[in-house]
Amino acid sequence: MGGSYVIKTEGCRIPYMDPFDPSIRQYIIKEKQFTCNNNTPPLMDSNLTSVYLKHNSLAAYNITDLTLLKCCYSVFHRKDPSSNQADNQIAYNKCVYFNESTIITDEFVRVSCTFNKSEVYKDFFSFVPLKPEVAKFSVLQAPPEKLNVLIIGLDSVSRVNFHRQMPKTLKVLQKMGAIEFLGYNKVADNTLPNLGAILTGMALEELVTTCWRKRSDRFDDCNFLWKNYSNNNYATVFAEDSAWMGMFHYTKMGFKKQPTDYYWGPFDYAAEKNIGNAIVQQASQCVGSRPIYQVLLHYTQKFTQVMHHNHIPYFGLFWSASLSHNFLNKPQLGDESYANFFDQLQKFNILKNTVLIFMSDHGIRFGPIRTTYQGRMEERLPFLFTVFPTAYRETYYQVYANLNRNSKRLTTPFDLHETLKDLLNPFSLNQELLNIRILNRTVTKRGYSLFEPIPTNRTCEAAGISVHWCTCQNSTVVDINSSAVVDATTFLVQYMNKQLDGYADCAKLTLVDISNARLHANNDELKGSTEDYTIAFRTAPGDGHFEATVRCNLIKKSNKSHFDIIGTISRINLYGNQSACITDFNLKLYCYCTEQLYEQLTSTN
């Protein structure tokens, strides 16, 4: 990785990483475009207000006589789940017949078509009708005092992998004047704690003590930022594809009440369940004849246009996992679509009064690239871009200069939370206010708004990033056979087995080998008393590949282990259905179901 750095401050140095470094080049391949519905084109399409027949698709369905084609649409909506139900309850209305097109005044519809009395087509469409509770937020008569906030998320894409996979989108963003944050460091393992830090300002451990106390609880009581925006007369929307594995739903209970004014989850769930196809690793890549990520982008366009036309300020979070979750190279397949999407935002003048945030939660967490040092670093450094309206940049140039300067500092999701709070009142951010904040700063401050200068002596510890996730520590390779590394790894496997105690369906794990180990350079306070090791190792059964950071307490205390786990134990290879016998999403990473072990043993005898 050479000797140059993308972040070089007193508190943090993050090395430059070549997107095509020899150590990872073998894992970068050209992906083949997947096909939806065996390349059968959709029979119907939609615009802002209607669904309509595509005449050029009739031949693909062998429709020769339009009088024999009968189509109807069913409006459907989310139902509040009962206490023990998953957050995926749907209710359908009666099917209403129409001819070649019809205006839709509801959010979600299912379209069914028969030809000569046999079903030939089924599809799902989403719309953005202007709801009364949102229409009242129109600022048509008032001077603009608000900026829209539009967050577009792409799951599991590091900053470096974004450069590799999506050069067209990168070029469009650069042309738009986007600021790229070079030191944006995740604070936890997966989507929920990293997005939770943005939306609530809290770490996962803090969520558990305040609003999500047990796994069976729903998230309604958590103080997500969209509530703040709603209270300030913004329309709110939350939309994610692959909702079954969504941030609030995978092995979790979701919400009792719809969390935002517009909530796309019910649509995605119904569409994937009924017409999901091109399934890879249990996830549908398509609904009907369309890639899911494109369906989400189309919905995002509809939402922004409806709000723009009606002068309604909004806070929008649109998150896509279908293209990139678990897939290192598939983001390249969406490059053209995302580049066109951002071009369209400009074409329709959406960004004139909108702050665009384009981001990821972390890099790729699984797969062979994670066994490399660069793969480990990339996993902790997701991409983050911001685009501000030209008029705002020019008027609030001091604030914008801070934002630009902070792009070369260590930053976190906690900072993004503080920034989004500031965007509730963006026109009050003058230099006087920022000076007061600087004077009132405390040493313990974890999150800074990106509009105020981030200290150059900021460390991971000060920013709320554990040693395990920190990318700005100096570390050196150490001998995997050293007693410290072997003892620490033995402790890790013992810890994992202890966590699985009480789960009779999970096999006891044994250590297979240690892949690599690194010793971190600790800060002055810890020097001489502790050593921190990041170790990659394998266990059996199930060939589990793991990575963990262990603190070795050099000053031993009697009757107490001198090892502590810093952060979490990361699973770095896919585990599929190995842990299907348990539902705890943390222990799923460790558990290898004994039933599978029995099947494996009997099949080899």
Q: Could you explain how this protein is built, in words?
A:
With 605 residues, this protein is α+β, with helices and mostly antiparallel strands. The protein folds into three domains: 5-31 and 129-463, Alkaline Phosphatase, subunit A; 37-126; 475-604, Nuclear Transport Factor 2, Chain: A. 26% of the residues lie in helices and 23% in strands. It contains 17 helices and 25 strands. Helix 3 runs parallel beside helix 9, helix 4 runs parallel beside helix 13 (413-422) and helix 8 runs parallel beside helix 9.
Number of domains: 3
Uncertain segments: none
Shape: globular
The SS-based structural class is alpha+beta
User: What is the overall pLDDT average?
Assistant: 93
CATH homologous superfamily of the largest domain - what is it? Alkaline Phosphatase, subunit A
CATH topology of the largest domain: Alkaline Phosphatase, subunit A
Count of helical stretches: 17
Strand line-up of the largest beta sheet: 12-20-19-11-18-13-14
CATH architecture of the largest domain: 3-Layer(aba) Sandwich
What's this model, at a glance?
By secondary structure, this protein is α+β, with helices and mostly antiparallel strands.
Question: Keywords for this structure?
Answer:
605 residues; alpha+beta; Alkaline Phosphatase, subunit A; Nuclear Transport Factor 2, Chain: A; 7-stranded mixed beta sheet; 5-stranded antiparallel beta sheet; 25 strands
What is this structure's SSE topology?
Elements (H helix, E strand, L loop, with lengths): L4 E4 L4 E3 L28 E3 L3 E4 L15 E10 L11 E3 L3 E3 L2 E3 L4 E8 L2 E9 L5 H4 L12 E7 L4 H7 L1 H9 L3 E2 L10 H10 L3 H7 L14 H7 L3 E6 L21 E2 L1 H11 E5 L2 E5 L2 E2 H18 L4 E7 L14 H13 L6 E6 L13 H7 L4 E4 L2 H6 L1 H10 L6 H10 L8 H9 L20 H4 L11 E3 L5 H17 L10 E11 L9 E11 L3 E10 L9 E9 L22 H11 L1
Parallel strand pairs: 11-18, 11-19, 13-14, 13-18
Antiparallel strand pairs: 1-2, 3-4, 4-8, 5-6, 5-7, 5-9, 9-10, 12-20, 15-16, 16-17, 19-20, 21-22, 22-23, 23-24, 24-25
